Amino acid sequence: MNEHDSERIAADLMASGMERIDDPELADVVVVNTCCIRENADNRLYGTLGHLKSVQERHPGMQIAVAGCLAQKDRETILDRAPYVNVVFGTHNVSRSVALLEEARERSEPVVEILESPVEPEDAFAPAAPVHVDHPYSAWVTIQVGCDNTCAYCIVPQVRGPERSRPFAELVSEVEALSRRGTFEVTLLGQNVNSYGRDLALALRSDPGLDATRLAGERFASSRRSVRPLFGDLLSAVGEVEGIRRIRFISPHPKDLRDETIVAMAETEAVCEQLHLPLQSGSNSVLRRMRRGYTAERYLERLEIARQSIPDLAVTTDIIVGFPGETDVEFERTLEVVAEAHYDSTFTFIYSSRPGTEAAKLIDDEIAPEVIAERYARLKAVVDRSALECHRDRIGRKEEIVVEGVARRDPSLQQGRTRQGKVVLFAPPTTPLEPGAIAQAQIVDAGSYHLRGEVVAPPAVPRPARRLIPVATD
Ligand code: SAM
Ligand code: SF4
């Protein structure tokens, strides 16, 4: 979500005539877009600002702006700690960067604008136009902002506000516009994508004057009595957009992973065989204290249904280690569930106390850092083993990859991504493949974090994924 906001800020600055450069030493404007989900982002912000201060001293007139959810949380404190910052703005006014920089320049003093809710409807979302993307073949599409859940550790509801879904018809039009400019892969973004549309359906029921076609799309405009559109409806509609051949989404919440979503994933050819389903903990008592709304058994049951319905589904997750009060027995249950879920990859986070959350009050139950470090290492051994097994199973297969460019860790290689979201490293042909090219790769080796492949077919010009429509022959 933050990366998408960064794209949008960059796009607005470029539309105002600026040019994007990589070296802050040469920049006239530096925007630091922040995230406050975990504490180390706080610490890194002030380190980064300290460095930018010395750049600004060498380059008088350079403007520094701080945006994002950490700005939303810290507000004026940023200027107390870093008075040389010129602009501070929050998550509800990402579209204001150009105007605020201009205002700070004219007034020759810092400007802080943190809103509790979006001023304009378009401020709630980050639509694709205008948008700067490094590679136009792939785009993020925000379908929903905010979160109505109350996970005890999480600061998102405080800094992103309540859940709001983007009107169905607008989303489909946006994807159509993206496709027209060459995008064939979209990642739908939301904090709990499964609950997409719930607020739209409720609004339509309570206010008959609302534009049902815009909010719910033509297909569901007349179904004011039923709770439509659902996330599954959106997946199907986006899958029907001409030219869209890969659809991904993050994140569904396990408590709301309904059959309709799984069916839509299975039936929509463009939806990739990839599911990021955050577990957080395998212990039911910890899940209860986290207020996650599911048990480990229910989670595994939903996962099994998804795997049975969607062949070759890659599954990834998020786990928090060291939630306050987590006992050895509770942690060991996480190890068991993680082993049983057999993940393709896992994002493991050390619990970080966030101000204003319910868990922040559990200060006496916080787990000692050395205990967390030991648990983290044990969990890593389990998730790395599981990932390696999943990846080794792919050796010998031929996979469709979309080329991303030069490999991040080894510039002598290129990298592409499979439908399952796996990175494939390969030696470039004489003329390296362009980002966005589609190629076939023979998988020859595997590690815990990537696959190694050999390109076996010339890159294809992306063609729209089409459904097979039965045709009557007599
Ligand atoms: N909405 C998604 C869900 O409910 O699964 C997660 C979104 S959250 C922005 C991304 C991940 O950050 C979470 O899945 C969780 O593992 C991690 N996270 C959130 N708050 C955290 C905290 N206080 N400490 C450590 N990790 C945290
Ligand atoms: Fe945070 Fe929970 Fe909402 Fe995810 S569902 S954003 S973890 S409150």
Walk me through what this model shows:
- This protein has 474 residues and is α/β, with parallel strands linked by helices.
- The chain contains 16 helices and 17 strands.
- It has helices at 2-15, 39-58, 69-74, 77-81, 97-107, 121-124, 156-160, 168-180, 198-206, 212-216, 231-239, 259-267, 284-290, 296-309, 328-341, 369-392, and strands at 29-34, 63-68, 87-89, 111-113, 138-142, 144-145, 164-165, 185-189, 246-250, 274-276, 314-321, 345-350, 398-406, 414-417, 423-426, 438-446, 451-460.
- The strands form 5 sheets. Strands 13-14-15-17-16 form a 5-stranded mixed beta barrel. The chain has a 4-stranded parallel β-sheet with strand order 1-2-3-4, with helices on both faces. A 3-stranded parallel β-sheet has the order 5-8-9, with helices on one face.
- Strand 16 and strand 17 (451-460) form a beta hairpin.
- It is globular and about 60 Å long.
- Bound molecules: S-adenosylmethionine and iron/sulfur cluster.
- S-adenosylmethionine (SAM) binds at residues 37-38, 153-154, 156, 191-192, 251, 253, 278, 280, 318, 320, 349, 351-352, 354.
Describe the structure concisely for a colleague.
The protein is α/β, with parallel strands linked by helices. It has helices at residues 2-15, 39-58, 69-74, 77-81, 97-107, 121-124, 156-160, 168-180, 198-206, 212-216, 231-239, 259-267, 284-290, 296-309, 328-341, 369-392; strands at residues 29-34, 63-68, 87-89, 111-113, 138-142, 144-145, 164-165, 185-189, 246-250, 274-276, 314-321, 345-350, 398-406, 414-417, 423-426, 438-446, 451-460. The longest helix is centred in the C-terminal third of the chain and has 24 residues, at 369-392.
